[in-house]
Design brief:
Layout lengths: L15 H4 L7 E2 H7 L29 E10 L8 H22 L5 E3 L2 H9 L3 H13 L2 E3 L14 H18 L7 E4 L7 H10 L3 E4 L4 H9 L4 E5 L10 E5 L15 H4 L28 H16 L6 E9 L5 H20 L5 E5 L2 H16 L8 E3 L21 H30 L5 H21 L11 H30 L15 E2 L15 E2 L6 E7 L5 E9 L4 E8 L6 E5 L3 E6 L5 E14 L3 E9 L9 E2 L1 E4 L13 E4 L5 E4 L3 E5 L5 E6 L4 E12 L20 E2 L6 E6 L3 E7 L3 E8 L8 E8 L9 E9 L6 E6 L3 E6 L11 E3 L2 E5 L3 E7 L3 E4 L5 E9 L18 E11 L12 E2 L3 H11 L3 E5 L11 E2 L10 E11 L5 E12 L19 E3 H4 L8 E4 L6 E5 L2 E3 L4
Parallel strand pairs: 1-11, 2-9, 2-10, 3-4, 5-6, 6-8, 7-11, 13-15, 18-21, 22-23
Antiparallel strand pairs: 7-8, 12-43, 14-20, 14-43, 15-19, 16-17, 16-20, 18-19, 20-44, 22-29, 24-25, 25-26, 26-27, 27-28, 27-33, 29-30, 30-31, 31-32, 32-41, 33-40, 34-35, 34-37, 35-42, 36-39, 37-38, 38-41, 39-40, 45-46, 47-50, 48-49
Helix pairs in contact: 3-4, 6-14, 10-11, 13-14, 13-15, 14-15
Bound molecules: zinc ion.
The site of zinc ion has 4 residues, from loops.
Length: 1045
């Protein structure tokens, strides 16, 4: 095969973004990390801080302390109980009370975050309650904060799912709450904070946000300089357009003992749910006392003292005091105890002029309004008083060396399923939108089918959204709750499969105007059968007959795509072809497609004689469908496909010879696979050893291994949240591995089967992007009891001189530079790897692209590592009350890229911002969004179908990603599609010093013409929208410019 160096045409200026230095910031988190000693001295009552002193004369009659007490209730959509059980037991009572009590206590306020619960509750409310709710929202006494479907985890979710759950929530608010638009973010429980969230909220049009769980040393450092309120700027921002005003809470927790001030022993006395005889008490052994005539002054002064101390940590006299906890405010007594006692204190303080303070009930909106007002007074600008800050808040530690880096990996089976559902949902959204537009274009109204499909899409959006919750994708819920999420994801996968096959059948239909929809039959099988949510999927065995079997490949990307596809068939005497219409007589001719027949191995490692795998390099049009056919050979036809050769690297066992394969056994030996881009060399045990990039001729060591970690012997141990290893990872050998080497013209791979892992490494013989990577899969099995307190990682040891630096992505949206610190324990040097990690030196970059979110690190120069699974026998004391022993056999998919920097080329500025190459971006996209394989069901005729479908006349540039094409939902008596479709595009910054090997796309300054993308389907009536579609921006009639920010 000819070497395709690159057909991509990359505009030099498009690499400028990465080469330009970010704007300087007042606080850069990497610099803060350099400076901190991460000591943990006892700070007294504020354990992780210091003894706060203040001068009472800092306030006077004209300069009062203005306190906003903000009642809130943190409702996890699944954790100890399932979403529905929580709702039935607790949340519905809480929401009933919020509406009833806010009407009773006419100065009281409340904030609510989780729309998943709010929407469920709403369904059950009579119109009187709905109207009262809307009145409270309009009065501003009830505020929806963030307004997402959930309060998402910020380490593991992909940014497309973070956006989707926000759109789902905002769309619901808009249509059900009379156009209500949330304006303030509230993220009090996720375990570490990502700037991606700040970016998304900013672009969604929100003005302010609040965060809580950040490293205690970081809190202390920012508090010391009164910098807990800042303008959070993206670390790659060249100016200040991404600045988001952010309030960081200063103390250990969001509960009442840790929010009124530095002393939890005092603050707990002002949580009147804990009055003696109640359902909770104060662990500091001083109980609350009801406020009375007799103690009013003393109680008020005691609380005000805490408020005043807390105010010393901030830059203004406006003070935010959250008042709530998990699933709070559900009973009458709690409401009246909290309200009446606080009301007395408020009345007292407000009536004493010499106290120089006002205390009032408030919302987050009221707080930020007052805060911005203060900044404006002092600086002439609403945000100028606050410093700018760039970077992120990983990895979170709440106390001691308890770093929360375990949940980056916990329950990886479900983390991988999240990405699979994300793939399906996006695929279904895009195809649905195309079908809906085609129906409009063809003047047909198939509203029943489209309504049914929209209901399925909506369900899937909501369930994908639900799983982004910080006890969902994190893997930190009880076993039965994990299973409940899994069932919901499985139902969603089936729902989106339904939408995809219905939409595909319509789009492929020749006579679209007279389409008769059949919702009772399944037109296509998506070759991905899932009998149980927790099992690995199975591929369909295609029974090949003499009449051709139709398979349709669906490319949800807005670019041409060349991609390896494989099917399982029951015969090897077959051919694969495409149909091409001849110009003269419009008859179809068969065009042969080169393919490879590879063995399917039985559980015993033998070659099957009833199943075969066929593989070929498919070509699919942008946002399009392409038909391929498979049929048995006729008597006069010869087998054109290439037969893979099979070699077992063992000499102590005999294997069956199975037609048509050449099966041989040999002793252990090293071997290599080559294509036109790379030569991958493997050691005699079958593990990858090095990668040679053929363009440069350089060989890079890439020794792959598996490492094992145990947990500490004494004290706190690893659990669902925490990673508390017993030292560095140790080599874990595979026991009696069976090594099989399969070589062919389309793909070559090695498969190593052992007791706890089936490992595969593959090289694809293609001129496309897939040829540049080594494809790695592991089926990890930690289901056995003897794996208790074992964590297994995949480790790469290279000769890249990476020093202390490595790079990990944030939510698949951006990349951030990490530094390994000796002053941090092992677990403090682990970071989220939601989609990729790399190490680099002046010549070489080694990138591991990951299908599933995991934790990762670089424990030495040249080293890169990701955790694969963890099985933990004990609770780690963060409220879950169980270990992690519900492991499932989990399939991890990776691509390993070795890229050579063009000599002398400077691809990015020296900063915390780093950028993947175009090839890495493409590799990630095809890993997360492979082409869909649709197998035509049964004997339904394909005569009325087109052989391909695409509407795109000019594909998108390499650096522009179609994040989603999503038709809005119309709520009403029934669910249906609206006539608005949102096209969400992301232009990636990229490092242009790595050759765009195998790519055929271009970059051209980041302009998109809707006319080129959809010449016939959509009108030129295009509105720019804010990211969650709450606000309409400029109207465009022709060229829509896509900008970076
Ligand atoms: Zn929570």
């Amino acid at each position: 095969m000819a070497t395709n160096k690159s057909l991509a045409n990359v505009n030099f200026n498009d690499g400028l973004f990465a080469r330009t230095s970010p704007a300087p910031c007042d606080i850069q988190m990497d610099k803060v990390y350099d400076k901190l000693d991460f000591g943990n001295p006892d700070g007294g009552v504020w354990k992780q801080g210091w003894d706060i002193k203040y001068n009472p004369n800092q306030w006077n009659l004209n300069k009062k302390l203005k306190v906003f007490v903000i009642p809130h209730s943190h409702n996890d959509p699944g954790w100890i109980k399932t979403f529905e059980t929580y709702y039935r037991d607790q949340t519905n009572k809480i929401l009933n009370n919020v509406i009833a009590k806010l009407q009773k206590y006419t100065d009281m306020t409340f904030i609510w975050a989780e729309i998943s619960y709010f929407a469920l509750w709403w369904e059950e409310q009579p119109s009187s309650v709905r109207q009262a709710t809307i009145r409270l929202l309009e009065e501003g006494r009830l505020e929806i904060v963030t307004g997402g479907w959930v309060m998402p985890d910020e380490a593991n979710p992909h940014y497309s799912a973070m956006i989707e759950q926000l759109i789902t929530g905002h769309e619901w608010c808009d249509q059900n709450l009379n156009g209500y638009r949330p304006n303030n973010g509230w993220s009090i429980d996720p375990f570490g904070m990502s700037p991606t969230m700040a970016y998304i909220l900013k672009r969604a049009g929100l003005d302010n946000m609040l965060i809580q769980r950040t490293h205690y040393s970081v809190k202390k450092e920012l508090a010391k300089h009164k910098q807990l309120e800042f303008n959070w700027r993206q670390h790659w921002d060249h100016n200040s357009t991404t600045d988001m005003l952010c309030h960081m809470m200063p103390f250990y927790s969001y509960d009442v003992p840790h929010t009124c001030g530095p002393d939890p022993k005092v603050c707990c006395q002002f949580d009147f749910l804990r009055l003696p005889g109640g359902r909770a008490s104060c662990p500091w052994r001083v109980a609350p006392r009801a406020v009375s005539e007799a103690n009013l002054a003393e109680r008020s002064i005691l609380l005000l003292d805490q408020y005043r101390k807390k105010a010393q940590l901030y830059n203004t006299d406006v003070l935010l005091i959250p008042l709530g906890d998990d699933f709070r405010w559900d009973g009458d007594k709690e409401w009246s105890d909290q309200y009446t006692n606080y009301a007395k204190i408020m009345a007292y303080v407000n009536s004493q002029p010499d106290l120089h303070a006002t205390i009032q009930w408030g919302t987050l909106a009221q707080y930020f309004k007052a805060l911005r007002g203060e900044s404006f007074q002092q600086s002439g600008d609403e945000t100028k008083l606050f410093p700018s800050l760039s970077g992120d808040f990983f990895t979170y530690a709440d106390r001691d060396d308890h770093y929360w880096s375990g949940y980056f990996t916990s329950r990886p089976f479900w983390k991988a399923m999240d990405r699979t559902l994300g793939w399906y949902l996006r695929g279904a959204e895009v195809l649905y939108s195309l079908a809906w537009a085609e129906m409009e274009y063809n003047g047909v109204d198939k509203s029943d089918l489209m309504k049914e499909c929209m209901a399925k899409l909506l369900y899937s959006r909501q369930m994908l959204g639900l799983f982004q919750h910080h006890d969902g994708i994190t893997g930190t819920a009880k076993d039965h709750v994990v299973m409940d999420y899994g069932e919901k994801m499985l139902l969603s996968i089936k729902a989106t499969q339904y939408v995809i096959q219905q939409a595909a059948n319509y789009l492929l239909t020749k006579n679209k105007a007279n389409y008769k929809s059949r919702t009772d039959i399944r037109h296509f099988d998506l070759d991905d059968t899932r009998t149980e949510s927790w099992r690995l999927p199975e591929k369909t065995l295609i029974n090949v007959g003499t009449s051709a079997k139709l398979v349709v490949l669906y490319n949800s990307q807005a670019r041409h795509r060349q991609e390896l596809v494989s099917f399982i068939v029951d015969s090897y005497n077959i051919k694969v072809f495409k149909l091409q219409k001849s110009q003269e007589d419009s008859t179809n001719t068969e065009i042969d497609v080169p393919f490879q027949i590879s063995p399917v191995f039985t559980a015993a490692g033998e070659v099957s004689n009833v199943q075969y795998e066929i593989s070929f390099i498919s070509e699919t049009p942008p946002l399009g469908l392409q038909s391929y056919f498979i049929r048995l050979l006729k008597d006069d036809e010869e087998l054109e496909g290439s037969i893979a050769s099979v070699e077992y690297l063992t000499d102590d066992r005999q294997f069956y010879k199975v037609e048509p394969f050449n099966v041989k056994s040999s002793g252990p030996r090293s071997f290599s696979f080559s294509n036109s881009y790379i030569k991958a060399k493997f050691s005699s045990n079958g593990m990858l050893e090095s990668v040679t990039t053929l363009d440069s001729g350089d060989t890079t060591t890439t020794n792959l291994n598996f490492l094992q970690y145990g947990t500490r012997r004494g004290g706190d141990k690893s659990g669902a949240y925490l990673f508390l290893p017993d030292g560095q990872g140790r080599l874990r050998e595979l026991k009696n591995p069976l090594v099989k080497v399969v070589t062919g013209i389309i793909k070559s791979f090695v498969e190593i089967s052992s007791d706890w892992n089936d490992h595969r490494a593959m090289v694809v013989h293609t001129a496309g992007e897939e040829g540049t990577a080594v494809h790695i899969e592991n089926d990890i099995d930690l289901t056995a009891r003897e794996m208790d307190n074992v964590e297994i990682s995949l480790s790469i040891n290279s000769d890249v001189q990476s020093g202390d630096y490595f790079y990990t992505d944030l939510n698949g949206f951006q990349v951030i530079r990490r530094k390994r610190y000796a002053k941090l324990p092992i677990q403090g040097n682990w970071y989220p790897v939601p989609t990729m990690a790399y190490i680099q030196d002046k010549k070489t970059r080694v990138t591991l692209v990951s299908h599933q979110p995991l934790g990762g690190s670089s424990m030495a120069s040249g080293h890169l590592e990701v955790m694969l699974d963890r099985r933990l026998a004990q609770d780690d004391n963060r409220g879950l009350f169980q270990g992690v022993q519900d492991n499932r056999i989990t399939r991890h998919k990776f691509k390993l890229l070795v890229e050579k920097l063009e000599p002398g080329c400077v691809g990015e500025a020296d900063s915390q911002a780093s950028y993947p190459s175009l090839v890495a971006l493409a590799a990630r996209h095809s890993l997360l969004h492979p082409v869909f394989r649709l197998i035509k069901e049964g004997d339904e005729s394909s005569a009325g179908l087109l052989t391909s479908y695409s509407t795109v006349s000019k594909p998108l540039d390499c650096d522009i990603q179609l994040v989603n094409m999503r038709t809005s939902t119309l709520y009403g008596s029934s669910i249906g599609p609206s006539d608005r479709t949102a096209l969400i595009l992301h232009r990636h910054g990229f490092n242009s010093c790595y050759k765009p090997m195998g790519l055929r796309c271009h970059t051209s300054g980041g302009k998109v013409k809707l006319d080129d993308l959809f010449p016939s389907l959509y009108s030129n009536n295009v509105n720019q929208m804010s990211l969650s579609l709450m606000y309409e921006g400029d109207r465009h009639t022709d060229t829509v410019p896509v900008t970076f920010i």
